[in-house]
Design goal:
With 479 residues, the protein is an alpha+beta fold. The longest helix is centred in the C-terminal third of the chain and has 62 residues. The chain is elongated, with a radius of gyration of 44 Å. It has three domains: 236 residues; 78 residues, no CATH class; 133 residues. Strand 8 and strand 9 form a beta hairpin.
Length: 479
Amino acid sequence: MSDLSSLLGSGNQTQTDLLVQSYLQTQQPKLNRIQNKKNELEAKNSFFTALNTRINAIVSQIDAFQANDFDKKFGIKKVNSTGAEYVTATADGDASVGTNTVKVNRLASSDSLVSNRVNSSDDFGNFNGTFNFDIEINGDTRTLSVDLDDSETYQQAMQKIADAINAEDDFKVSASVVRDTSTTSRLSFNTSELGEDNKIIFSNGAGNLLANIGLDEGTLNPTSATRVAFDNSNAGYRTAAVADLNSEAEVNGITVTRSTNTLEDVINGFKFTLKKVHDSGANAETLTTDIDVDGVANLLQPLLDAYNSALALVNNNKSIRRGDASANSLFSSLRALPSTRITGLDSGNPDYLTVIGIKPDSSGNLKISDKDALREYLEDDSQKIADIFNSPDGFVAKLENIISSLKGDDGIIKSKKESLVQQIESYDKRYDQLKLRIDSQANNLRKQYENILGTYLKAQTQYSSFSQYSSGLFSGQQF
């Protein structure tokens, strides 16, 4: 006799499960349609997220090109030195093409002031109280205080002086106690910047604290052009002549001195960096200046890369582009831009990117494919190259006009993304609601089928009992 379990059993699955699965399969296309639509919306949202990144990259480049004095960068030059270990140079748009000579006679140095050599462990003397002294660096005068209690050794007192100097904020001098032998020490002051402008001027206050270690302004002449130099025992400056703190170079045969090793105001448009002193009989180095075509190309490349990246993104998402008017319009405008004439330029100026060697490839990506053409206009007048990009109707202005409606909080991209997010959330809810209804109906089917089977089993059991009863009741009787 069958029971409910045997009736429901069918291999590894119950007949009820098969029935429910069959129902779920008939409903799955409804869920798939919602999921597919959601996937389309998510792909479109991802596209506009990526497009927003590309547009922001273009905006960054536009901002760079529209910065003050950016046009001068188109005139950058390259400078080659015959002795880069001695001197190098850079040149901007104001520099002239040609040659210059530089010989380095002296490098600028920091100033140093050194105390007497003293026995480290000897008593510093009768100094009890607060003692002040002044240090001046390039017009910045600081009054410093040191507290002593008449118990300090030279080593300890000099360390307190050094600590007072080093505790100052933004002061261009530091101090340290140097143990030059195992039993002796010296106090050293050193400036952090170079040249005569940053020489050390000191003054003893009442009590002559510094004079006790040989730093006496009356003896060392800190404000004069020639100061006292230190030796193995006595205090003084490392460089006696203040002028010798400056660099000295012969530029085109003319002696030039500065408080730094970077000469930025010697020849218009040039910055020379002095690195090493020439031997006295050595020849000057020759620095040759030429148009820097590669430098200008590197200046342009980030803008072209930003343009190419945006164009490629829209081009590679054809299905989205065809179904979205703003994306399709952007693609058409970007693709047409390189072949659009730039107006408002002086007669004879290049008015197409292709004229200066910038051409689109088969995919529309802009490439600097003819540097000779670029060089020709740079040699003629670098401003002509600047104008093709930065004039009121130039490439940058046209590009800004193309993307203007897309960017920002009020732009199309943000509006579309907000709408897409709302639609995605709506489809999420629709999917969840439909799935809940389908699962509920499937559960109802399961219960209905199990109830039918239960009723069938009950009827079968009753029939079997009746048959057995009838068989026993009428057994042995003849009619």
